[in-house]
């Protein structure tokens, strides 16, 4: 069985993590890279261990019939254009988060993917982390009963020390604190609680620290979600905090609770005064090199080869999470709750 050929759109920080994950796996390899900056094919091939052809013309790369999949790692404001072009060219799509900067653009991507009949994967790779796969397994086994409330928060200061800061700080680049990075936390909240969200209420603010002055949008937001089932959830997105990276996860059930990598469960006869620590690899870094892309991408490639849709991070999940994110941003902008 031949490996799938993958073309990369955009050759920056995130792309390097994608290429590493793809070429480390067994089912695909990167054979093409599109970049607005001319690249040296020989140097690329030597660096990544596979024969790579570089392009400065995207249409030329997309017209290459040997390419099965494209991985879109371009600037956020280019996502819609690139995803629609890839779908129209009949390529299966890996799309970095966020999907796009507007709900209308997300719907346009969805329509193009469905019309072309290609497979789609959104990079909410945290769903594929050992921490969240383990947590979801514990929930599915009923060890803390039925959830009624959950808090999942993305707390990570994204300042000038990150290469993406200059463009991410622009409204036309990052969009909002929830969209640019907090989307991972919102997506995880939906993974645990379900997606039957009825109403969202969101507020946002901004630090007085001069470090984060370049941001053109408020850099802290908190969103309350009301589910049709009666559950409620809270998601904070704080990209202006001065502290270590922390992906806060606190789930409350009818027979126990999970706090990050700790559990307290009546079913497990836990000591009521103490937590029990669980063995899991935590999400403790904002560096894309530490993200679980390989597991996600190998699952996606298996689905392409077996003509199966992507589980956990497919088109359906991408659309639902972004629908809620844009509703939350609308609520913060208008000061009113938004019903879905």
Overview in brief:
Helix content is 34%, strand content 24%. The chain has helices at 13-24, 41-48, 58-62, 79-88, 103-116, 130-140, 165-168, 177-193, 293-306, 315-334; strands spanning 4-9, 28-34, 53-55, 69-72, 92-95, 120-122, 147-155, 197-205, 220-227, 232-238, 246-253, 256-259, 262-265, 276-277, 338-339.
Would you mind describing this structure in some detail?
The mean pLDDT is 97. This protein folds into 2 domains: 4-118, NAD(P)-binding Rossmann-like Domain (Rossmann fold, 3-Layer(aba) Sandwich), CATH 3.40.50.720; 127-285 and 321-339, Dihydrodipicolinate Reductase, domain 2 (2-Layer Sandwich). By secondary structure, the protein is α/β, with parallel strands linked by helices. It contains 10 helices and 15 strands. Helix 4 links the parallel strand 4 (69-72) and strand 5 (92-95). The longest helix has 20 residues, at 315-334.
Keywords:
340 residues, alpha/beta, Rossmann fold, Dihydrodipicolinate Reductase, domain 2, 2 domains, nine-stranded mixed sheet, six-stranded parallel sheet, 10 helices, 34% helix
Using the coordinates shown, work out and report the CATH topology of the largest domain: Dihydrodipicolinate Reductase, domain 2
Beginning-to-end CA distance, first to last residue: 45 Å
CATH superfamily of the largest domain: Dihydrodipicolinate Reductase, domain 2
Rg (CA only): 20 Å
Runs in which pLDDT lies below 50 for 5 or more consecutive residues are none
Provide the structure class. Answer: alpha/beta
The helicity comes to 25-40%
Order of helices and strands: EHEHEHEHEHEHEHHEEEEEEEHHE
